[in-house]
Structure formats: C-alpha cells, structure tokens
Amino acid sequence: MADERHELAAQDDGRGADEPPRLSGEKAAKPTAASRKGRLTKESILPPESFTKAPKISAKSRTREEENELKRVRREAQRAAQRRRTPPKGPLGRWWRRVQSSPDRISLGMCIVALGVVYGDIGTSPLYTMQAFVAGQGGMASVDRAAVLGMLSLVFWSITLITTVKYVLVAMRIDNKGEGGIFALYTLVRHYGKWLAIPAMVGGAAFLADSVLTPAVSISSAVEGLKTIPVLTPIFRENGNLTMVITFVIILILFAVQSRGTERIGKVFGSVVMVWFAFLALIGIYCIGNDWSIFEALNPVYGIRFLFSPQNPVGLTIMGTVFLSTTGAEALYSDMGHVGRGNIYATWPFINVALVFNYFGQGAWILRNSDNKALQGVDGLNPFFQMMPTTVRYVAVLLSVTAGVIASQALITGAFTMVSEATGLNWMPHLQVRYPARTRGQLYIPTINWVLCAATLTVLAIFKDSEHISAAYGLALTVTMITTTVLLADYIWHDGKRALSLLFALVFLAIQILFFMASMAKFMHGGWFTMLLTAAILYIMYTWDVGTKVERSQRRHMTAKECLPALEMLHNDFRVPYYADNLVYLTSDAEMRRLDTDIFFSIFANRPKRARAWWAVSVQTTDAPYTRKYSVENFGTNYLFRVRMRLGFKVDQNVATYLHQIMHELIDSGELPKQPSIYPKVDEDPQIGTVTYVLVHKALMPESKIDSRGAFSLKVKYAIRKVAGSPIKWFGLAPYNPIVEVQPLFVSTRAVPKLTRVVLPSRKIKGGKHHKG
C-alpha cells in the first residue's frame, strides 16, 4: 500500500510516476518538452566533475586505426583498378591476373608471414629425423647404403604423398570460407551423417594435445643443441637443469607475445625461416658434393625393399621415425585461414626443395662416414650437426633454437583456430577472442593461450628433456591425420567423385595407419601421456556437445501475442515498485520477433521485475572488421525492445556504451519515453534511468526426466562454464554489477510421491492432562 500511495501522490502533485522528484523548495510546474533538458540540468545532483570516466560514444564515425585501414584499402583498390586498365601481356600475364583476382592470390608480405607461421614445425624435422634413424639402426657402424637409400626414399615419398598431395593439392582446395583444419572440414560434411562428428572430435582433440607437446619438444631439443658448442659445454655440464630453465623462459616469452598477433610475429619469424630453409638447402648441397648417386633414393622401390628387408632391425616401426619428417603437415591446412591459400602454394615448393636437399645431404654424409671409427662411439650422434664444419655449427645451433620457437608458433596459432571453430560448433565454451591483426583469421584467445602455456610447462616438468618428451611426440598427430583423411574422403565421395574417393581413402589410410601402428611402439615410453591428454580434450568436447543438445531441446520462445498481455499488465501495475528503469537481458537468440521464455519467466519469477523498459539484447560478430550496426524491434510498445547489435570482429564489445546510444536515439525518435535521472550513476548519463543487466544461467532440477548421460553432461558443462569465464567480462559489464540468475532447465519431470502425515503421540503433562504433540 505504501508503494501505491507513493504512486498516487506523485500523480496528485502534477508529476507522472516516471518523472524524478523535485528538489526541496521547488514549485510544481508541468515541464514542456522544450524545457525538460534545461530542467534536468538544474535538478541533477550529479557532481560537476566526471569521476568514473565512463566510456562515451564519440562523434567520429571511425577510429584512427579504421582511417588507416580505409586508406590502405583505397590504395589497394587504386592499384587493382590500374592493373585492370593495363592489359596483361601474353598467356603468363593473363594467368597471373586470374590468380590475383581469385582466392589463390599471392602477396609478398603474406608469403613472408606464411613462412613464419606455417612451416616452423616441419622445418625442425631435419634436426632429429636422421638422428633417430641412425640410433634405431644401432649406430653408424650398422648403417649401410641400402638402409640409407631406403630411409631417404621413405622420407621423400612420405613428404610427397602426405604433405604435397594430401594437404597442399587436395585438402587445401576444400576450405570453408577460406578456413582450413579438421573442424572447418567437418562443417562442410556434417550434413552427410551424424557419425562424422566422431572423427572430427577425435582429430581435433588429438591436434590440440599435440599443440601442447610441440613447444616442449621443439624448444627443448633446440636449446639442448647449445651443449654442442665447445665454449658452453662446461657450463651445461656443471648445471644439469640449465637447459630446462632456459626452455622455461623461452616458452613463457613465446606465449606472452601471442597477444600481439600472428601477423606481427609472422613477419619477424618469416625472415628467420627464410634464412633457415636456405641454410638447410645450402648445407645439404654442400654435403652431397659430387655424389649425386644419392638421388637414386627417389625410386620408391628402395623404400619398399628396405621396409620389409631382414637387414632392417626395427621392421615396420621404422615408419614411426619416417613420420617425424611429416610433422607439421597438418599445420599447412589448419593455418590456411591465417595466411591465405595462394601464399602457401607460392612458398611450399621452396620449403619442399630445401627439406629434400638437407635430408639427402645428411644421407650422403652418413654413407661417407659409415666406416669412420671416430664417430662410432659418439653417444647420441646427430648427423645434422656432425656434417657441418665446426665454424658453421655455431650458426646452426643458434638458428635451430630460433627454428624451435617458430615450430611452436605454428602449432599455437593452429590451436587458436581449432578452438575458435570448435566454439562455433558448440563443442567448447564461448571464450573471449581478440583479433590483433587486420584479418579475422588471425586471432588470439587469452584463456587458451595460458592453458597451453601451463600445460606445456607441466609436460616439461614431468619429462625433463627432449629425449623423453619425443617418446610422446607425434602419436596424437597420426590420429589427426587419419581422421582428416576420413572426412576428406567423405567430402570427395559426396562431391560425385566416388572412384577418386575410394582411391584416396585406401592409399592415405594405409600409409597413416602404418604410421599410427609404428608410433604406438612409443606408448609405454611417453605416448600414454599424449593419448591421455587427447582423451581429456575429447571428453570436454563430447560432454559440452551433449549438454548443449539437451539445453537446445528444451529451449522455447514466445511470440508477441503470447507475452505482451502479461508484460503490459505488469508495466501498468503501480502496486509493484520498479525493479529498475531499464532491465537488460543478454541473449544468444538472434531472431528479432520473439522472446526467450527464460527472459519472460525471469521477469515474473518470485518477485515480478517491473521496469520502465525491458530489453533483450543479442550481439553478433561479423566477418568485416569495423561493422557497427544495430536493429530494434519494439513490438508496437514503448516498454519492450528487442535489440540486435552487429559488431565487427575488431570492435570492442562494449554493450553498455552502445546500448546508451541506442536508448538516446529511441528517446529522440519518441519510441522510448524520456528517463531523466537526478542521482549519481556509474555511467554518468543523467538522461537515462538506471540500467540493470541480467544473465540467465540454467540448472537441472533433481526431478528431471533425463538419462544419466545427459544429466552428467550438463553438470560437467556447467562446471566447465564456471572455469571458462563469464560473458560479464567479455561484454564489459563488470562495472554495472550485473545479476546472474539461475533458472531450472525445463526438462520433463517425474511425478513426486506425496508425503504422508504422521500424527505425533500424545504425552502427559503436569496436572494430569494429556497434550497432543
């Protein structure tokens, strides 16, 4: 009744219930529209000086960064127009014109970025592949010409078939809006069958697990190369953990600079990688010398003969060593969105030739020194370093350390892409994503960055050195390659090329299953850790997917006809005090002409939340970098508004600031009643009333009719969501004290048996009277 009397008193003294109270001593006067703004200034008791520095909407439509980007786009458009006006010369000129106007266009700058971002992992393979081969054969004394030619043949044809044919020529032609990787591929084929989610999840989990091991093994093995420098050898001998400490520091620095963006990192790394691969090629050619007979290994017969030869002491497990030469091939596909397909096409021939020359150079050196008794007793002999002159070895060690860092970068950027795509498939929680560069493909996910960092350091702490880490390395990547082959074959099959699909599946599954079986020999020596990590990531994706499906099966929406009568009654019910002037709900539903039942029941649950205006706001991220647009549906009312913001991926998602702009524009257009406020507020906006933000989370009721798998998946999903972070931070709402509300997930419930009343026995009290308890 007190609230009702307040409403009536407000009407009796000439004010509407929605108007602010007058200051003491002020006479009643009904304000006109023209005088409202001036009166608001007089009545406001906001401090004259700004204290909170709340963000405001600028009068400028573009930031300096956007202006610079616009100038760059205009310059590129002018150059393109100039090229179109200049007729191409000859067939080569016409071909180049077609390439530059297609998705395969080539840029010198992005080619350098591609070198730094994509090829780091495969570029470090020569450091340890032939070393593992010599050790597996029993040392230099046990290696003969047939073994060397066989190994080189297997390496050459593995790189050719797996990297060049499968990934460069086939997989990279199958992209999802320029993006590559197993999740982008699954998006293209998922409508062909639900079962395809299984290989996609397994492959993605394995790739992310390998992303943890790659920085540890690549950087630690490169840092351990410092021990071969004579000046530093005594220092490392006296300090056994020095290599691990240096590796720790390098890994921390690497993950710390990820927020600067892969484009900036790629330009620095790209120049180094160019020098690195040129160095690999030159050293290889130097060691080949005049012995060009080593190229007999290009004949695949040598490889097949050696694979099944009784002189091969390790048998088929030699393929586990051969597989080391192809690690990093998956990065070409997963990082395609970062650098562009055409730039990988342009740079891969150079990379391929450099790798072949280096491997064959190591092979030629092994043949020349197989009878060298001085080398037969060397522990952990590495042909890569031994084949160089001593003076060159200093440069090689320094370059290899840098190459190890770059190898880690290739997997980290691939992991960001993988997680972003998994989020789009609702297989992982929505995380804050930043786009430091000017293309959406180059992203940075802070949570994933530091989770990878912590996991990599944990691996290093457990396994101590590269020798033990390498036992777990590569096993997970064979799983990713197999699952990618399955999805590619399914795409080719449904593309109408069934014979090609069968041939593709048979050839590449046979090769990669052989790789997997050979790598399983490492299981008890460290491979168990990789598979355990893969299983953990797979479990997260699986439970998140199942939980999301359960939630979506219960999602309901209301039309305006269904929800407006109750909302209109509450809006006009003066007996209910205002909960807030503006009650804002964030929703993932982008449809504008309906309302989530979650929002509707939140308004009416327990204590009805009366407001001057209710808002349902959704935010969509666009592929364009600087989009700033919004749409509003008011359902023919002045109290219910459905808002959809479309923000570019480079635009900060400051929902509160943009919503104030929308409110002002709706007030100016007359769609929203004026909301003058005289009291101090965090947002320092006297023309807008109080704003309360609400986020609705779901919870499962104990009586819900749901199987144990679905119930457990929901519990795990909600636990992961707490760890992953809150949308409050993503949308910049923390200063506004938003409310997080938990509502029951409306799954069908079981009938609960009723209670039975138990009558308490009577007891005797003083005075002889009986009293029932």
From TrEMBL:
What Pfam families does the database record attribute to this sequence?
Answer: K_trans (PF02705), K_trans_C (PF22776)
Annotated segments matching region Disordered: 1-95
Biased segments, Basic and acidic residues type: 1-29, 62-78
Membrane-protein topology: Multi-pass membrane protein
Q: Where is the K+ potassium transporter C-terminal domain?
A: 583-742
Domain (K+ potassium transporter integral membrane): residue spans on this chain: 112-558
Q: Which InterPro entries match?
A: K+_transporter (IPR003855), K_trans_C (IPR053952), K_trans_N (IPR053951), Kup (IPR023051)
Q: Which UniProt keywords apply?
A: Cell membrane, Ion transport, Membrane, Potassium, Potassium transport, Symport, Transmembrane, Transmembrane helix, Transport
- The main location class comes to membrane
Keyword Cell membrane part of the UniProt annotation: yes
Indicate the transmembrane segments per the record: 106-128, 148-169, 195-219, 239-257, 269-294, 345-367, 394-422, 443-463, 469-493, 500-521, 527-547
Tell me its family: Belongs to the HAK/KUP transporter (TC 2.A.72) family.
| Function per UniProt | Transport of potassium into the cell. Likely operates as a K(+):H(+) symporter.
Q: What is this protein called?
A: Probable potassium transport system protein Kup
